[in-house]
Design a protein that fits this description.
By secondary structure, the protein is mainly alpha-helical. It has a domain at 6-105. Helices cover 50% and strands 0% of the residues.
Length: 143
């Protein structure tokens, strides 16, 4: 299953561009949803391959950032297919890949969907007891 929907992709690309991106023969005035879905599926597979070591797949509730990254990767793939990827699209793709690789290495987290409160990992208690200090002002007097 793709992390972004066709509606997500269509919201970010003008309809005339979508027609050009999916109609390789130039004979149609319709968007080929099958080609759009294939690009989204390919982008999702690439995402999975880069984060698989850090998260358990499939994700039951993927965070929103994956939809954004999926859309960016799919748009770059579509424009690359027709040889028209811009520098801006390439930078977006490179940033997405960099982010996903950091997630895969455990340097970054995906974040939540906002549906559940964050899990408390520490009770927030400060440690105030410990062994007696070896170096104090009184013991260092005269040095």
């Amino acid at each position: 299953m793709a992390y972004a929907s066709l509606a997500d992709l269509k919201a970010g690309v003008p309809p005339r561009d979508l027609i050009q991106l999916t109609d390789f023969e130039g004979a149609s005035d319709e968007v080929d949803d099958t080609r759009l879905q294939a690009a989204l599926d390919d982008a999702s597979a690439e995402i999975d391959s880069r984060i698989a070591k850090a998260v358990t797949l499939p994700l039951t509730t993927p965070p929103h950032i994956l939809a954004v990254l999926c859309r960016d990767l799919a748009v770059h793939r579509l424009y690359s297919n027709i040889g028209m990827a811009t520098e801006a699209q390439t930078k977006l793709r490179d940033a997405a890949i960099s982010f996903l690789e950091k997630v895969g290495r455990g340097e970054l987290a995906l974040g939540g969907t906002g549906d559940t409160p964050p899990e408390v990992t520490s009770p927030g208690v400060a440690m105030t007891d410990g062994p007696e200090r070896m170096l104090t002002r009184d013991r260092l007097r005269g040095f």
